[in-house]
Write a structure and sequence with these properties.
globular; Aminopeptidase; alpha+beta; seven-stranded mixed β-sheet; 188 residues; 32% strand
Length: 188
């Protein structure tokens, strides 16, 4: 069983656990901005950025914890600073521990994201992801559609990678989650 927990300002240990999870996931598929073998400085910068976002209210950071208490999933919702885009949330820092993939972590996290979006007035979710990695397929399987592509999206060392930009209305994600739940119950 898993539990979803939104981190609050001052949750330094929770933010550190999220960065530790991202380091584990990055060893398999590096995040843009965090290499497969990040330096202590790179990890510290990510911790500081997440903590600052939570404190300012610009970032909502969800953790998914296993029964053991270990953070096995995470995703952040970032709000734009501009008033005319306050209805949009950008999903970042999405990760699932390799040992917990294929279960209910992603679906559970998305249900909680939908709930929080409705609570804070976000109607559209957008994200960007390196093209061709496992995460792109997961986002698409939950109904996120492509609205753009950038060839030189990110670089790891001397190698350049393309990226895709995806979006979906929160109500559409909610309907998709309900449909998945109904389909699972009918199969079960």
């Amino acid at each position: 069983m898993y539990e979803c927990v939104w981190l609050k300002a001052g949750s330094d240990s929770g933010v550190a656990e999220v960065v530790q999870l991202i380091e584990i996931v990055s060893a398999d598929e590096p995040f843009v901005g965090l290499p497969a073998d990040p330096t202590a400085a790179a990890s510290a910068a990510l911790r500081a950025k997440l903590a600052e976002g939570i404190t300012s209210g610009q970032t909502q950071l969800l953790t998914v914890r296993a029964e053991s208490g270990e953070v096995v999933g995470c995703v952040a919702i970032n709000r734009p600073a501009t008033a005319n885009q306050r209805h949009i949330g950008e999903l970042t820092t999405g990760a699932v521990h390799p040992g917990h993939r294929g279960g209910q972590v992603v679906t559970m996290a998305f249900r909680e994201v939908v709930r929080r979006c409705e609570e804070i007035g976000i109607e559209l979710l957008r994200l960007d992801v390196r093209a061709g990695i496992r995460a792109e397929g997961i986002w698409r399987s939950y109904g996120f559609g492509e609205y753009g592509r950038l060839d030189d999206y990110g670089r790891i060392g001397a190698e350049s990678y393309s990226g895709v930009y995806l979006a979906q209305p929160v109500k559409q994600l909610e309907a998709r989650l309900f449909h998945k739940e109904v389909s699972r119950a009918q199969q079960g």
